[in-house]
Design brief:
alpha/beta; Rossmann fold; six-stranded mixed β-sheet; six-stranded parallel β-sheet; 19 helices; 20 strands
């Protein structure tokens, strides 16, 4: 998708013609449908700007009584406005997080960004301001200089939010003046997608603990709503039983971010306990060292079981936060429920139900036990991490009965084939040079149900290939961290059953869920390399081709 001229786009208001014109001007890969309100609001904005140009004297008919030849008369307001409305993106969405901007204009050198939001009907000024503030967060990764406006067509009112957070009504002449700034002469080159890299605005508290601690993140509307609901619930008198909250959501919906954001708030004056169902990573340990009132523990550690039986040690904690809770031992979940009820300590348990996978007994049992004790269930839905085309692909990868969204661009996914380990090594090295990270699957089931952790001192074999592997980060596991480019290998141990569900044979029980975790760690580009199984390759290639 590239930039277009808003004046040319706004000349038609026909609901049937407008989408085709927009696709033609923007180069969008599919025809997007727009509501009548969106179309009319855009026309109202351009008309208001044209009137402002006329009122300013920059354009309009020659004054009565003049005898200047037509060629020397001042240009019309439309002629003045037309070049100023070049270089805009209309209804642009950041794919990873479904964050939409109505109108964006970037200076060619990205030194300045203009964002205009359109409202067909009047809404509260508080809502307008909050939206502009949120937009500024996402745009701040492109430029420090951001011009923020909202235009309400019904009332013909313009609002602005400046760099210092001052929000007020503005005159249309002000916006016209901004469009005339020399910095906006010309348009950015290439696709707008090149300006929005997932790593620039998606924060993983564990992978980027320092950015998290500096507050370089923004909760989605749903995360903020759930946070407010939880804080209000915790503020109430906890009788007869404290909240036992189940926070679910598929990969990338921001469960860990919400948990730790809540922990930051709750730990300002009180102690908070954070339990993790996988192996504690370097990011967890750094957060544990820097956050004085939050204690991080591995749910599988003997120390955790002992703590949950020690009322005196638990008394200072105002809340217990649990991440990857369906990977906890059943005994720990039961002890949490009993102990929290006895001591009236609220508990929040976040987990991904892995609905795309075949039932895995340990996860299913843990989820059933959590549900049995749950007093409030909250489910995050909006995906804020994973690349949307990758997520659409992996849903069909695990269950071929599921349909692929229409007009989805899968160009960020490659499905390749190698007949043996030697060919796989050649391809692997090529992708290594291109910056891809390989995420290994386990050859053996880890003890205690925890996620496998590569031995940093010894290269691990690629599953089924015998190839040594050294590209993955030392000490990484598949359930934490995000990567711009991911390479995964599949072989004849993966196949589809009669129900068209992907399954693994001759592999640990955790392999399917770990494959799912690895796929959902992809920010931008994914490559699946099939080794020695032409039937599996044919299946995956068909999915990639949209068949």
């Amino acid at each position: 998708m590239h930039t277009l001229n808003l004046y040319l786009l706004s000349r038609t208001t026909g609901e049937d013609l407008f989408p085709d014109l927009e696709r033609t001007l923007s180069g969008r890969q599919y025809t997007k449908r727009f509501s009548a309100h969106e179309i009319v609001s855009l026309r109202a904005l351009t008309d208001a700007l044209e009137q402002a140009a006329a009122d300013s004297g920059d354009g309009g008919p020659a004054q009565p009584g003049t005898d200047s030849p037509a060629s020397e008369q001042a240009p019309s307001p439309g002629a003045v406005l037309l070049p100023l409305l070049d270089g805009f993106c209309f209804s642009y969405t950041i794919g990873h997080i479904s964050k939409e901007f109505d109108l964006l204009k970037l200076a060619p050198d990205r030194s300045l960004v203009l964002n205009i939001e359109l409202k067909s009907a009047a809404v509260s000024e508080d809502r307008i301001r909050k939206q502009l503030e949120q937009n500024r967060y996402y745009l701040s990764h492109i430029s420090r200089s951001i011009l923020s406006y909202t235009y309400v067509a019904e009332t013909d009112t313009l609002y602005s939010l400046n760099d210092r957070g001052y929000f007020a009504r503005a005159e249309m002449s002000e916006l016209l003046g901004q469009l005339q700034r020399p910095a906006f002469a010309g348009s950015i080159e290439g696709e707008l997608e090149d300006c929005f890299r997932a790593s620039d605005y998606l924060i993983s508290p564990v992978a980027d603990p320092d950015r998290f601690l500096r507050g370089e993140y923004f909760l989605t509307n749903q995360q903020a709503q759930f946070k407010q609901e939880i804080l209000e619930l915790l503020a109430r008198e906890r009788t007869p039983a404290p909240p036992f909250i189940s926070l679910t959501g598929s990969a990338g919906t921001g469960k860990t971010l919400l948990l730790l954001d809540l922990g930051m708030d709750l730990s300002r004056k009180k102690e908070v306990l954070f339990l993790h169902g996988g192996i504690l990573r370097a990011g967890h340990r750094r957060l544990d060292a820097l956050l004085r009132h939050i204690t991080f523990l591995d749910a599988h550690a003997a120390e955790t079981a002992q703590l949950l039986e020690d009322d005196e040690r638990l008394q200072p904690y105002v809340c217990i936060l649990c991440d990857e809770a369906n990977r906890f031992p059943l005994s720990v979940i039961e002890q949490l429920a009993v102990t929290c009820r006895r001591l009236k300590i609220p508990c929040i348990l976040a987990h991904d139900p892995h609905r795309l996978l075949r039932s895995r007994l340990d996860l299913t049992q843990a989820e059933a036990l959590i549900d049995a004790h749950t007093t409030l269930h909250l489910e995050l839905s909006g995906n804020i991490r994973i690349n949307h085309p990758v997520y659409a692909f992996l849903r069909r990868l695990f269950n071929r009965k599921l349909s692929m969204p229409q007009q989805i661009d899968l160009s960020c996914i490659e499905v390749l084939y190698a007949s043996d380990a030697e060919e796989a090594a050649v391809i692997r090295d090529r992708f290594k040079a291109a910056g891809y990270i390989y995420l290994p699957l386990p050859e053996h089931e880890p003890e205690g149900g925890a996620s496998p952790q590569p031995d940093a001192g010894a290269p691990q074999p690629l599953p089924g290939t015998g190839l040594p592997e050294t590209e993955h980060p030392a000490g990484a596991d598949l359930t934490a961290g995000e990567y711009d480019r991911v390479l995964l290998l599949l072989d004849d141990r993966f196949a589809y059953d009669e129900e068209q569900m992907l399954y693994a044979k001759r592999l640990p029980a955790s392999s399917m869920s770990l494959l799912y975790e690895g796929l959902t760690r992809t920010r931008e580009q994914l490559c699946l390399l099939v080794v020695g199984s032409e039937s599996l390759f044919a299946d995956l290639l068909a999915i990639r081709s949209g068949k």
